Amino acid sequence: MFSIPWQFPRAGIARRIGTALGRRVQRWARQRQGIDATTTQLRPGRVYILPTGVGLIYALMAFAMLLGSMNYNNNLSFVLTFLLAGLGFVAMHQCQRNLVALELSFAGVEPVFAGQVAKFRIAVNNHSKIARHAVRLYTDDASSEIADIPAGESVLFTLAVATHRRGWVELPRFGIRTLFPFELFRSWAWLHMDLRGLVYPATADRAPPPPATQTSHGHRQHDARGEEDFAGLRRFHEGDSPRHVAWKAYARSGQLLSKQFAGADTSSQWFDFAQIPVPDVEQRLSILTRWVTDTDRTRAAYGVRLPDREFPPANGNAQRRRCLEALALFGLERHDEQAARH
User: Fold this and answer.
1) What separation, in Å, do the N-terminal and C-terminal C-alpha atoms of the chain show?
2) Pseudo-torsion of CA 18, 24, 27, 28, nearest 10°?
3) What pairing do the DSSP bridges indicate for beta strands 302-305 and 310-314?
């Protein structure tokens, strides 16, 4: 009755000791192995193996059968005991062999917005002539699906990492493991590739309307997208409005062309960091992110002004990627340089 309150501190102490011990083991493994290349092949010395709970029970059962066989001097019992023991040793060998010589390569990670999940892609290549079974990649907080890797082929695994702020999200280490066959042993290896992915600022839920579009009249341009004087046809480019596609010419020739106009009005929209009436820097970046993503969906041209750089008005995926990357790393590059100096 009086011992119940003491269970909570003891559990907390045990948890803290386990966490500290785990971090110490991680540091030791990183110092021992060093930084792995983005393409790493597993050597036998990198693959660890230990029995699982089922494996321990299996070993105790075999030992108990051995004691019984010796006590009763039963030859059939000896045969069964040694057969089970031999099966255990074969399972131990096959479990470690299931990971040895696998090649792991970083296959990239797509940028995400803060609060979303970054999905790191790891390709596992099996260059041997035998298939590898029940392989899984994992981190301290997540794990991938279990998959078999046929001989001479590769499988793409995905590791999900939660993001909380803009900038870089890191995957300093991840593991690969297997319980094949029979789940009597657990074989695993840790890799330290220092992978990272880009995290854009979270889009503002309540953003003020973007600034009005600025229009300059009578400007003649080679790839004008106005609608005044027809000047001819040109090859279709990504980002062109579907309204400017020459569908009749496409029906005749099968080639996708866009109409171009001369003497048209040129419209541009600037998103200026300094003109946003919000004192907080992160809120300004979130508002700019919202403006960029919303305007990009309309295929309209836009530009972004930051205190340290400027992106002229344009549209398309390249413009969106440049602007969002600049917003994600705004102010962080200087901190990284200062940290590197110290």
Assistant:
1) 56
2) -120
3) antiparallel
Pair 34, 26: CB distance under 8 Å: no
- The predicted-structure confidence for 124-134, as pLDDT tens digits, reads as follows 999 999 999 99
Nearest CA-CA partner of 328 in 337, 320, 316: 320
Helices (H), the chain: 7-33, 53-72, 75-97, 247-253, 281-297, 317-328, 332-341
Tokens 């836009």, residue?
302
* Phi (first) and psi of residue 21, to 5 degrees: -65, -40
- pLDDT tens string 22-69: 677 777 766 777 889 999 999 999 999 999 999 999 999 999 999 999
Q: Tell me how far apart the alpha carbons of residues 177 and 250 are, in angstroms, rounded to a whole number.
A: 54
Residue limits of CATH 2.60.40.10 in the chain: 34-200
The residues near 133 (Cβ < 8 Å, ≥ 6 apart) are 98, 148, 149, 178, 180, 181
Class of domain 34-200: mainly beta
- With cut-offs at 50, 70 and 90, classify the pLDDT of residue 290: very high
Cβ 37 vs Cβ 193: under 8 Å: yes
Closest CA to 167 of 328, 324, 326, 287: 328
Of 158, 70, 178, 149, give the one whose Cα is nearest residue 118. Answer: 158
Sheet holding 132-138, edge to edge: 48-51, 185-191, 174-178, 132-138, 147-149
**Global pTM?**
0.76
**What is the overall mean pLDDT for the chain?**
84
Structure-model confidence comparison of residues 267 and 95, the more confident one: 95
